[in-house]
């Protein structure tokens, strides 16, 4: 494998109607690529060159259109043209946007599986648009894990806080049935392994309860029994004796006092339980843990309501790029 391919990250184009290209452009500007030695950053675009270069969000950065990875330049944002779709963000309907997004995602995954790129940084999509072209599409995390033989974990990371979800993109009505000893135990061990890779030595993890008041001893649900079993399992494993694991904690009480710094890791039982308070703290990066390649993404969606207005916050996108590069150095 050629060195140029080893140090390349594929960036998916996401939903071009949203803020993805704007936050990417802003993040690349802040990276000052011409002053740093970073891996090659390559946007995977099914949109052909003549229309892609007319997108306003890309006009402020130095780009290089390439036909193959060997031509990439790590001082510029590379754009690998993979198809001949002609469109512009403001003239793209939902169906075409979904087609562009899934084509980019498929190409990036193929490159990652073949080892031609080290990882993937995904821009936000609209799931319902992609599902028009890909049956049973749930999310980018699940799509990237298909056919890899692994069950990925969703981790969110910012400053001195790491959070993992026990369940991901499922209806709230199905969460209870998914809360069991093994699933919670897998989440705890995955978060510990991630935190160790990030060189976090003093690991202090709080495991959240599912029910109000942590179930009140079974009066308001019994899922906490399974959660407690997983916590005891990890406490009894000498490989994790240097980690503090407590819970199950009532989520409202735990997050209300999180700023005290008692914990630097959180195990959340479901999507919104963890992500609503996490996002209130500020931007974070989404990391798919367990894949055979690196995958990061900003922690937000396509935000159609502010697209094209220049108001999008690029901090999470910048974190996604910097974290991907950081993970590469730790592999």
Report on this model:
The chain is α/β, with parallel strands linked by helices. The chain folds into two domains: 3-148 and 292-330, Isopropylmalate Dehydrogenase (3-Layer(aba) Sandwich), CATH 3.40.718.10; 153-281, Isopropylmalate Dehydrogenase, CATH 3.40.718.10. The chain is 35% helix and 20% strand. Strands 3-4-2-1-5-12-11-6-7-10-8-9 form a twelve-stranded mixed sheet, sandwiched between helices. Strand 1, helix 2 (20-31) and strand 2 form a beta-alpha-beta unit. The radius of gyration is 20 Å and the shape is globular.
Question: Which descriptors apply to this entry?
Answer:
Isopropylmalate Dehydrogenase, 12 strands, 331 residues
Give a brief description.
The protein is of the alpha/beta class and 331 residues long. The chain is 35% helix and 20% strand. It has helices at 3-6, 20-31, 49-52, 94-113, 127-130, 140-145, 175-178, 181-197, 223-235, 251-256, 271-281, 315-330; strands at 8-12, 40-47, 63-66, 77-85, 119-121, 153-158, 161-165, 204-208, 244-249, 265-268, 285-289, 294-298.
